[in-house]
Amino acid sequence: WSSDVCSSDLIRALSDERGVFDKLALTLLEDTEGNVWVGTSGGLLRFYEPRGYTYSRANGLPDDNVRAIEATGTDDLWLGTASGLARMTPGGIVEPPRIPGLTGRAVTSIHADSQNRLLIGFADSGLGMLANGRFSPIQTPGHTFPDNVMTVRPDQRGAFWICNLSDLGLYHWDGRSTFRKVQGTFPPGRGGCSATLLDQIG
User: Fold this and answer.
1) How would you classify residue 131: left for phi > 0, otherwise alpha for psi between -120 and 50, otherwise beta?
2) What phi and psi, each to the nearest 5 degrees, are found at residue 176?
3) Rounded Cα–Cα distance for residues 140 and 91 (Å)
4) CA-CA distance, 42 to 64, in Å (whole number)?
5) Exposed site from 12, 31, 42, 163, fewest CB < 10 Å?
6) pLDDT digits (tens, 9 = 90+) for 123-180
């Protein structure tokens, strides 16, 4: 889905209820009901034929800069913004959680596991886990994740692939204690990791 391409047989330009989609798209998610959610620099957009809807700070978002979207088995949406985390209920009510360790922190990535626990990446420092209403930082060796954890992607073995924009690195985490930087991913000074996608063989 893109806001800066012309309509064609394969690609159609999208618009919100005002007929305009002129913000920077930062993240995308399609839910089980066919809604396409777009996190942008100017709010959260929901597209479902034939119209789109916009959510912003006026609707309860901590910030209009929405960087991450994740759905859970409870049909809630979790939203990572430049000023904190928020939960959107199936009824469209936005509720920023007031949990120590989360308030006001810029969220760059979210992953929900099968137990509806949230693995959260932050712009300021590293990773954390939100489970049963409690937040726990995840300890990493040394200064592995000083800031800007861009994506957290699980694989079929229960491990995670993590992009860290600060040092342009790709890391592999076994989900318990071992973090390993993948060497040789990018030539020195050329490129960096900002997103990951696993193929069918992991």
Assistant:
1) beta
2) -125, -75
3) 37
4) 5
5) 12
6) 877 788 899 889 988 876 555 555 567 677 777 777 888 777 666 677 778 877 777 7
Neighbours of 192 (CB within 10 A): 17
8-state DSSP, 177: S
Of the CA atoms within 13 Å of residue 109, those in its CB half-sphere come to 24
At 59, give phi and psi (nearest 5°): -100, 5
CA-CA-CA-CA torsion sign (191, 197, 198, 200): negative
Matching residue, tokens 């137990």: 115
Backbone angles phi, psi at 127, to 5 degrees: -125, 160
Contact predicate 62/84, CB 8 Å: yes
pLDDT tens for each residue of 3-47: 443 334 444 555 555 444 567 888 889 988 888 899 999 999 988
Distance in angstroms (rounded) separating the CA atoms of residues 173 and 144? 11
pTM for this prediction: 0.77
The pair of structure tokens assigned to 145 is 């994740």
Beta-bridged to residue 149, according to DSSP, are 164
For residue range 61-76, what is the model confidence (pLDDT) as tens digits? 999 999 999 998 788 8
